[in-house]
Amino acid sequence: NAYPKHIFFIVGNEFCERFSYYGMRSVLLLYLRDYLHWDDDTSTAVYHAFTVLAYLFPLVGAIVADSYWGKYKTIIYLSVVYVFGHAVKTVGSIPYVPSQVAHAVLSMFGLFFIAVGTGGIKPCVSSFGGDQFKPGQSYIRKQFFSLFYFAINAGSLISTFVTPIFRADVNCYPNETGPEFDQCFALAFGVPGALMVVALILFIAGSRWYTIYPPEGSIFTKVCKCIYTACKNRWNTPNDVRNKEHWLEYADAPYPKLIRDTKYVLRVLVLYIPLPFFWALFDQQGSRWTLQAIQTNGYLGTLLIKPDQVEVLNPLLIVTLIPIFEATLYPFLRYFKIPFPPLRRMTVGLVLAGLSFIAAAILQIEIDKTLTPLPKSFEFGVRFINSAPCNVTFIPDNGILPDVTVQPNDAMEKQLPYKQMLLKNKLWNLCFGVEFIHFFIHRDHVYDIVSLYTIMTSPGTHGNPQRDLVVVVTSVERGKYPERPTDVLHTNRSTSIDIGYGSATITAYDKSTFGDNDETGSGGGNVVVYTTDLYLDVGGVYSIVYNNGSTGFTNLDLNPNTISVAWMIPQFLIITIGEVFLSITGLEFSYTQAPPSMKSVLTSIWLFTVSLGNIIVLIIAEAKGIEKQSDEFFLFAGLIFVAAILFVFLAYRYIPVDENEFKEEILEEMISVLGNYLAMTSPSRGQ
User: Fold this and answer.
1) Is 622 exposed, middle or buried (0-12, 13-18, 19+ CB in 10 A)?
2) Hey, what's the signal peptide range on this chain (predicted)?
């Protein structure tokens, strides 16, 4: 009964593979949104389309392993595909790739190969680990599956926390400028890819000690043939001679037990009908809830929680709640004889998922109250900034837009219908959905900046020389950015810089006083042009306007994030409790209700329900028929409550299977496993 030491190669493989998968997926949505510049709905749809494929290919992997390659070769071959997908995905995220189309094409191919790899090996690794135990080692086999499940959650937990740090905090391109170099997605994808290489090496390293069984044919294909022939034969049988009790009895099955076992499987599958709605909600932790986290204040004291790190709450709560429930909740219910059978637990899990989305919707409503109103798809936004010492009235020449009067050193913004407008003999074509177009009004001049900027200047007038400025942040009390980020503002231009939140002093110097290669002040006497003290809130966007001859002023362009990310903890807690009740209980229930020959079939179909759930999200996201995110959350909550009612109805009608019916099959399976083991360990094996 010695514990097989080579099992740790399989556990290590699973840890690295789960690190690889969840690490890549944790930053995927932000990559699609911020790097490929796809909108929220498209990014969400692609994210869930990838998950659809990742949970669809377990069916393919199981069939290939059972019918052709065997589990060992399937894991090896598809792991190579997995590594190749990571390599293509990483190359696609390198900023030096010449075109945006190339980035998108490489990324989509990479995601496809990753889905094939992770999905294909998913049903093989755990069962291959179970093959390593001898008959009579059932107790330590249970220990292995506990260790295996811990490796899954440990890999998920660590990677979901660490990978966003690679994305946001590592400066991979210190000598480059531009938004494409601000985040290091290549490293965030490359590290998980490297871990998948380690996973493959670990698995191969244990090859000489593995117990490897040859493929014996896929039970899944046999079930499909059984159902197909039953339907065909029953259709071809005249009504007056149909005398069988169950339609499956018309099948051309070689063994009567296959028909019986298929009946049991179909009974359980009927219970699976509402389950895709649970996964539709559950998998939005990495998509819609990540987008929600972007709109919150990520600072907890001095600790910054990145939007793509929020998902770490799920595995953290899982590894915490499971032992707590096993030690407290379930013994408490047993002590007071309160029935809490599997189907009731699964029903509670469905309801809790709906409640978590109600919590998410309420939080989203509160977030929306604090956000700066942005133009709708049929509008554009205009911000007028007046740095002149007198009132300025903006009068469009075409008379379509209303007059706008702006006070000295003030700003005003308008949400206006899409039109063309003529301003001082210049035609401006305003596009749908443009966030804001800034018009800087300085006496007789109007300057346009098509974006939002943090630091802005306007030129000198009345004979004063126009000068480039050096902006220096001399102090930031809190935040993670360097204390002295500098930026050169060329005459009649604007720029933006990122600085940490907290109190800051921002000073502009005349660049002519600096040396050619030195912006520290050693090239001449520093002439302070403009200084302002600000308190910068997280997520706020500020315009600092300098104008020669005026003291300048500061305007808040976008409201800061005032809702703390900590308010997302309740919805994560609720849905994770729901996962414990539904997912873990559901797998246990399926295992006890399935005949021995059908356990792998039900496991594969269980994973397929995850794929169907993500298809639901994909359809709703691509429909784009819901304007408010809170309303979409309420819609999903309503859908799963309907699914819960349907599940209650199906569970009420379900008649549990008596496991004693399978005693004969269990004994046959044990004899078969013992025979295979003796054959694999006999002296003739190497001949």
Assistant:
1) middle
2) none
| pLDDT, mean of residues 347-361 | 97
The DSSP bridge pattern shows strands 392-394 and 445-449 to be unpaired
The C-alpha angle 302, 307, 309, rounded to 5 degrees, equals 80
Residue 425, pLDDT above cutoff 50: no
CATH superfamily of 1-217: MFS general substrate transporter like domains (1.20.1250.20)
Q: Which residue has the higher pLDDT, 2 or 368?
A: 368
**Length of the chain in residues, anyone?**
687
Please give the backbone phi and psi of residue 382, each rounded to the nearest 5 degrees, phi first.
Answer: -125, 130
- What share of the chain in percent tops pLDDT 90? 37
Q: What CATH topology corresponds to 255-371+565-656?
A: Growth Hormone; Chain: A; (1.20.1250)
Helix axes 599-623, 275-282, angle to 10 degrees: 60
* Torsion angle (degrees, nearest 10) of CA 598, 604, 608, 609: 60
Provide the mean pLDDT of the chain.
Answer: 79
Residue 53 has a pLDDT of: 95
Coil, helix or strand at residue 520:
coil
Question: Residue 570: pLDDT above 90?
Answer: yes
Topology agreement, domain 1-217 and domain 255-371+565-656: yes
Alpha-carbon distance 303 to 254, whole Å?
64
Segment 402-412 mean pLDDT:
74
To the nearest 10 degrees (0 to 180), the angle between helices 313-324 and 569-579 is 50
Contacts of residue 236, defined as CB under 8 A and 6 or more positions apart, other chains included, come to none
Domain range annotation of the chain = 1-217, 255-371+565-656, 379-451, 457-558
> CA angle, corner 350, sides to 356 and 58, nearest 5?
105
In contact, 161 and 23? CB cutoff 8 Å = no
Please report, for residues 346, 349, 480, the alpha-carbon distance to residue 336 in angstroms, rounded to integers and kept in the order given.
21, 22, 52
Q: Is 586 exposed, middle or buried (0-12, 13-18, 19+ CB in 10 A)?
A: buried
* Pair of tokens at residue 486: 């500098």
Cα separation of the two ends of the chain: 27
**Do residues 677 and 211 touch, judged by C-beta distance below 8 A?**
yes
Nearest to 599 by CA among 254, 133, 279, 130: 130
* CA atoms lying within 13 Å on the CB side of residue 29: 27
| Cα-based torsion angle of the residue sequence 472, 476, 482, 484 in order, rounded to the nearest 10 degrees | 20
DSSP secondary structure code for residue 239 in this structure:
G
Give buried/exposed letters for 140-156 (b at 16+ CB in 10 A, else e): ebeebeeebbebbbbbb
CA dihedral over 488, 184, 111, 160, signed as positive or negative = negative
Cα angle: 172, vertex 178, 180; to 5 degrees: 60
User: What's at 332, amino acid-wise?
Assistant: F
Structure confidence at residue 255 as a pLDDT band (50, 70, 90): low
Instruction: For tokens 């749809």, name the residue.
Output: 45
Angle between helices 100-130 and 40-64 (to 10 degrees): 40
Strands 455-458 and 541-547: parallel
Sign of the Cα torsion 477, 480, 483, 488 reads: negative
The DSSP element (H or E) to which 528 belongs, if any, is: strand 528-536
Hey, what are 261's tokens? 């076992």
Any bridge partners for residue 299, and if so which? 304
Contact 527, 467 (CB under 8 A): no
Looking at the DSSP bridge assignments, the partners of residue 411 are: 385
pLDDT given at position 681: 41
CA atoms of 60 and 505, how far apart (whole Å): 61
Residue 183 · residue 167 · CB < 8 Å: yes
